[in-house]
Amino acid sequence: MFIVGRILSSLLVIAGSLVLVFAILYVLPGDPTDNMIDPSVATAEQIANLKQQLGVDQPFYIQFTRYISDMVRGDFGNSLLNSEPVLDKILEHFPATLALTAASALVSITIGLVLGVLSAIHRNGPIDFIARLVGLFGISMPTFWSGILLIVLFSLQLGWFPAMGSDGWKTIVLPALTLGIVGAGFIVRMVRSSMLDIIDEHFMLTLRSKGLSERAVMYKHALRNALIPAVTMIGMLIGEMLAGTVVIETVFSRQGIGRIIGDALMAKDLPVVQGVIFITAVIYVLVNLLVDLSYSVIDPRVRRSA
Amino acid sequence: MNRSRFVRRPFQTSTALLLVLTLLLSACASNKGSNNNSGQPAAQQSDAPAATEIKQGGVLTYALATSPDSLDPHRSGLAVAVRVIRTIYDSLVVQLPDNSIKPWLATSWAISDDGLSYTFKLRQDVKFQDGTPFNAEAVKYNFDRILDPATKAANAAALLAPYQSSEVIDEYTVKLNLATPSRAFLGNLSQALLGIVSPTAAKKDGDQFGLNPVGTGPFKFVKWEQNAEIQVAKNADYNWAPELVTNTGAPYLDGIIFKIVPEEATRIGSVQSGQVLAAETVPPQNIVALKGDSKVQLLEANTVGLPYTLFFNQEHAPWNDVKARQAVQLAVDVDSIVKTLYLGTYDRAWSPLTPGTFGYDPTLENGVKPDLEKAGALLDEIGWVKGADGIREKDGKKLTLHYVDGTPNREKRNDIAVIIQQQLKALGIAVEVEITKDVRTVVYTNGDYDLYGNSQVNSDPNALYPFYHTTDPKAQKSLTRLSNPEIDKLLEQGRVETDDTKRADIYKQIQHYIIDQAVILPIYVFPYTVAADKSVQGLVFDSLGYPLFNGVSISS
Amino acid sequence: MREAATASTIWYKRNRAAAIRFKRLSANNLFLIAAAAVILFIAACAVVPSFIAPYSPTEMLTDSIMQPPSAAHVFGTDYFGRDIFSVVVYGSRDSLFIGFASVLVGGLAGGAIGALSGYAGGWIDAVLMRFNDILMTIPGILLALAIAGALGKSLFNIVLAVAVASIPGYARIMRSQIMSIKGRTFILASQAAGASPLHIFWKHVLPNSLSPLLVMATIGIGTSILTGSGLSFLGLGVLKEVPDWGTLLSQGRGYLTVAWWICTFPGLAITMFVLAVNMIGDRLRDRLDPKRSAR
User: Fold this and answer.
1) Is A277 in the same domain as A181?
2) Interface contact C226, partner A, CB < 8 A
3) Residues B87/B88/B89/B90 CA torsion (nearest 10 deg)
4) Is the distance from CB of A81 to CB of A32 less than 8 angstroms?
5) Any A CB within 8 A of C251 CB
6) Chain B residues with CB inside 8 Å of C146's CB?
7) Which of A7, A144, A259 to mutate to test the interface with C (most CBs of C within 10 A)?
8) Which of A36, A42, A252 is facing B69, going by the closest CB pair?
9) Chains in contact with chain C (at least 3 beta-carbon pairs closer than 8 A)
10) What pLDDT digit, counting tens, does each position of B8-41 carry?
11) Chain B residues closer than 8 Å to A32 by CB
12) A117 and A226 together in one domain
């Protein structure tokens, strides 16, 4: 019963986000022909013809219902700009975004854990100070700026990694670093405080009194217990990272979902925008469903309250 | 058909002539430095150091600033797409830097006395990259395709006007009929957006043709990874290059990879770090820096057509008053703007036309000099006097100027607005700058601007017509809202005048009027710039500033 | 086994000693002092820029464009020939406006939605939370991009765009806090005593639920400035005579390899300010969480 309810409400959320995006596009000025035809060259008649052919002269609600009815039948439609099927477009771009998000999450966890643990172990010492400062820097810089700085340093000056592209592991290093540093900042904070919580708890004292070495206590118990919130945090950060790709993919000239939706949004390319939002909404809903389900498995109280 | 005006251009003769020319030019080119061609439409430059030295093979990586929209020439609306389109497709004719029209896929043509029909003789040895033969049917199919609304043709439809229909005379002769005579028509036919697509492929792929383009050009399409790269490969059968390039045969390169790199610093830096061999649209600050780089050369071609121009909206008072406009003309220090923002890398514009365009009048150069005092006197004269806050007033109304510019900040145009705002503050005009994404609505539909800037790459001075001719009450208004019977008459004559000397004179009169009456403020001439590794040789540009890769080779 | 224990004891002791030496200026205190100083200075820039900036931010010295930092121009000059230090000082106004105003709008709206949802429960909660989920499915920067695009370029529209994008976060945290407070004994006690639900909400639930929202809002000031600068990068920045830091950074980034100072100083201004705000936020979080006050 609980699961059926969740699935129903998930469907509602997906439908709702499509309607919301539609509403936003409705008020967005201009139309897709803006960049297709130069108003200083073309006659008004030519522009009107083009609009008619693309169907963008129709009232928006007609465009929307047509789109939805096609989608229900499994047809995501074609891009208004170049007629490319939206599904092909998404399938072409999705792997690169997925790879970038995964690599960034890896960077976040690695840096976040190392700094967080160091910081907790050396509580209030100079290492704590430095580790936290580094973590804070990560979340305080505009990503497009840190990205460009990394390009200038590691690509243009040192020539270690390519500055652009989305094929091969080498191209993913710099963008993943840029995006991963942001997530690392949040994880440092999280790991540090949950480790400190555990260190202060009684059972640690008990373990110590049992004669376990200090180091063993730290790494075996405190760290293991701190890992859980850090991994949960990553779940929450995935959404943030997907959003971050809008900027990062442009800075690093990568293919990806973030880049096409940013462009499509500004060009009012309705089928593309709706297609991408549909996919991200499904991902979001699925991730949350999984998180909630796993909670209810771990903690029976959640099941009862839901 | 009128035999006397049939321009015969046997293809063999021109090839032989070209060969001689090539040898002569390459002899000259090897003496002087090969990268100093600034300000020149570079086609005069040899694109091959010498026939024996040319290295075959290799792949050129070329970074583009934005992603092309479609590789269907008839549907594309972006200049960046034309850089790729030009490699895949050929046109019927070619326009040389001296504005003369020469054969390409057409060997010769005749224009009827009334200027309403053009009969083209076509080359008989041309095949599309998919094997389809090129013939009169193919030409007819192409132009009818642009006219067909289902094609969703964009700028190509505008360029093709006043085309009406085609008749296939025989397999290699086609007659194009126009609704009205147009001197701009041949020049427009030379543009890549009117390039000839393969009828077989276009019919087969329909809407998706722009994703699987097929033409007759020197390179054939391989693949397109959107937002990342486009690959084209050598068309080994190619043997019909126009006079604009010296290599009439297949290209020396094995292929070109166009990389899409929007971030300026990355794009240019990648050439310096060797990640790509060439990159387009070099920002002025980098042009200056590159001039001292021993590994990188800078190639530029000034574009023809209309320079970046600020248009006054004469429907809005007080800008309908020539004195108010002249005051602004005298107060805006264009030299200072061009020097500050473009660091001397862009030329200042003086006329509504750019220097390479047919009929350009160089006597306008240095005609307008900034004179704040005179500007102030002009405004005083018409009753706009300085108020307490330094802003001029008349009848309790402040003197404001609504300056509209589009986004993004292309070629630092938004920065021009910032400087003009400061410069006109000194004259007592409050400039309200509006940067909008929706130029179509704000400017073209609502006319909500006093000053708006635009430029246009165009092969013919007839480009002036839609900007300065009185507009048909039913049509969209011109940017200037100018309505002067004299100018109307001249623009109409220029459109059809067949005598080049007379035609040039007509356009000179128009240019003088526009500047004397301060209808516009011409700002700068945009050069298309390419930063390339020194190993890249033979890159030239057509008269519109688009790169041609036929003669490019990569030396080791 | 013994050896390992000894080593670890030594390690632990050494560490302790370092911590004690550092104690007088503990990390937390150091952060706090530095952060307060940065924020105070930037606030002063926003309030009385004319006392701090040596030049007018609009004055274009066309003879000295792109000059590197010097005694006359400590941050150098930009491509218009403006003194970058002065432009950055004046630019703090709009940057802080974006930061504070969008937190105010987003925090109030999100807080209200979350409070209503959590306290009312039932179908109101269900409806509001589905709406919140819908907002959350669309990445924040895209939402901001769409709103800024729809409303046009103005400072206020940027604020609105950033604020709307931040609503779901505030709503979620407020709702969960309200729900946990609602079940506490002292609330149940006053309910038993017959107090009206509205009274209980204003007097007990709300005051006890605000602290996480406050922490989030503090950090949100920094996040908003970052989101705003992201919008500038994507071409939706506001062009004014004196632009905000995000716009300055975005416009100057093309000069990084030829005149590094043009974008570096606005970038540093953003980073320092956001860093300071984050430090204060961290400290606030520790303080408001009774369990962690010892740190």
Assistant:
1) yes
2) yes
3) 50
4) yes
5) no
6) none
7) A144
8) A36
9) A, B
10) 444 444 444 444 444 444 434 333 333 333 334 4
11) none
12) yes
Residues A89 and B517: their CA atoms lie apart, in Å, by: 52
The CA distance from C158 to C281, in Å, is 23
Number of separate domains in chain A: 2
Q: DSSP letters along B515-539, please?
A: HHTT-EEEEEEPEEEEEEETTEE--
Kindly list the residues from chain C whose CB atom is less than 8 angstroms away from the CB atom of residue A250: 233-234
What percent of chain A has pLDDT above 90?
12
Look over chain B and give the mean of its residue pLDDT values, rounded to a whole number. 88
A78 within some domain:
no
Task: With respect to residue A198, please indicate whether it lies within any of the assigned structural domains.
Answer: yes
- Cβ neighbours of residue C7 closer than 8 Å, sequence gap 6 or more: none
Q: For C255-275, write each residue's pLDDT tens digit.
A: 988 899 999 999 999 999 999
| Whether residue A17 sits in one domain with residue A138 | no
Same domain, A283 and A142: yes
Q: Right CATH number for C3-293 from 1.10.3720.10, 3.90.180.10, 1.10.357.10, 3.50.50.60?
A: 1.10.3720.10
Whether the CA torsion B51, B57, B61, B62 is positive or negative: it is: positive
Residues C228-237 pLDDT 10s: 998 888 887 7
Any CB–CB contact under 8 A between B66 and chain C?
A: no
Distance of residue C274 Cα from the nearest chain B Cα, in angstroms: 25
Same-domain status, A180 and A279 = yes
ipTM over 0.90: no
For the stretch B506-544, pLDDT in tens is 999 999 999 999 999 999 999 999 999 999 999 999 989
When pLDDT is averaged across residues B284-311 and rounded to a whole number, the result is: 91
Looking at CA atoms only, how far is residue C211 from chain A in angstroms?
A: 18
Chain A residues 130-149 with a CB less than 8 Å from chain B = 148
Q: What DSSP letter does each residue of chain C carry, written as one string?
A: -HHHHHHHHHHHHHHHHHHHHTGGG-HHHHHHHHHHHHHHHHHHHHH-HHHH-SS-TT---TTSTTPPS-SSSTT-B-TT--BHHHHHHHHHHHHHHHHHHHHHHHHHHHHHHHHHHHHH-HHHHHHHHHHHHHHHHS-HHHHHHHHHHHH-S-HHHHHHHHHHHHHHHHHHHHHHHHHHHHTSHHHHHHHHTT--HHHHIIIIIHHHHHHHHHHHHHHHHHHHHHHHHHHIIIII----SS--HHHHHHHHGGGTTT-THHHHHHHHHHHHHHHHHHHHHHHHHHHHSGGGTT-
Chain C residue with minimum CA distance to B410:
C235
Q: How far apart are CA A256 and CA C121, in angstroms?
A: 40
Q: Does A57 touch chain B (CB under 8 A)?
A: no
**A215: helix, strand or coil:** helix
Domain that holds residue A39: 1-73
Same-domain check for residues A47 and A136? no
pLDDT digits (tens, 9 = 90+) for A82-119: 788 898 888 888 889 989 988 998 899 899 888 988 88
Statement to judge: residues A9 and A106 lie in one domain: no
Q: A133 and A20, same structural domain?
A: no
If contacts are CB pairs under 8 Å, which of residues 243-262 in chain A contact chain B? 249-256, 259-260
Q: How far apart are CA B224 and CA B229, in angstroms?
A: 6
> Does any domain span residue A84?
no
| Chain B neighbors (3+ CB pairs < 8 Å) | A, C
Query: What is the CATH number for A239?
Result: 1.10.3720.10
**Chains B, C: CB contacts under 8 A, how many?**
58
Could you tell me the two tokens for B303? Answer: 């574009």
User: Domains of chain B, with CATH numbers?
Assistant: 59-302+529-554 (3.40.190.10), 305-525 (3.10.105.10)
pLDDT tens-digit map of C104-121: 999 999 999 999 998 888
